[in-house]
Design a protein that fits this description.
The protein contains eight helices and nine strands. The strands form two sheets. Strands 2-7-1-8-9 form a five-stranded parallel beta sheet, with helices on both faces. The longest helix is centred in the last third of the chain and has 16 residues.
Amino acid sequence: MYRNRNGLLLVVSGPSGVGKGTVCKALLERLETMRISISATTRPRRVNEIDGVNYFFKTQEEFEAMIEHGEFLEYMQVFGLNYYGTPKAYVEEERRNGHDILLEIDVKGAMKVKEVCPDAVTVFIAPPTMSDLKTRLYGRGTENEAAIERRYKEAFAEIQYLPKYDYVVVNDIVDRAAKNICDIIEAEKSSIKRNSELIAKYSEEMNEQ
């Protein structure tokens, strides 16, 4: 079957506790062509980390030079200290090689990526209900009540971005959510807008008749 050889950039967001990481892990297990995006950072490299595998480790001067030259799809500075960002060059090269790139990121970062890369496919992972999300946050047992309530409040703010996304997937069952995203990817790869080469090929063949 003919397929546009360029990979997709899949941007996944959702509130804390919704199970984004679990769904993304299931997605990576299902799709051999999917690669997780590697971020650049200025934070110190840990003993077991490998440059170009876990992160692209940069000095602050290197990172800020990349910002100045417009080399990031998105970036942020955490607590005014370390920078984190998604390098354009890495994503573009992987896509040219036919790999789909998965970028799990917050809603503000996702909107920045959409501005820079309009053909990115954005998916919002949502809980079945907000009360269900709150139950999941408490069920993790990793934070105190004040922190959980803060995350729950943040979740309502993040939900406001939902209409700006291309798709919404409810994570009630992880495997089903992962399958739904696989279906989205398949549909996007079959879309007319992503198959201009095929249309041009048909036009060329018609002109030869």
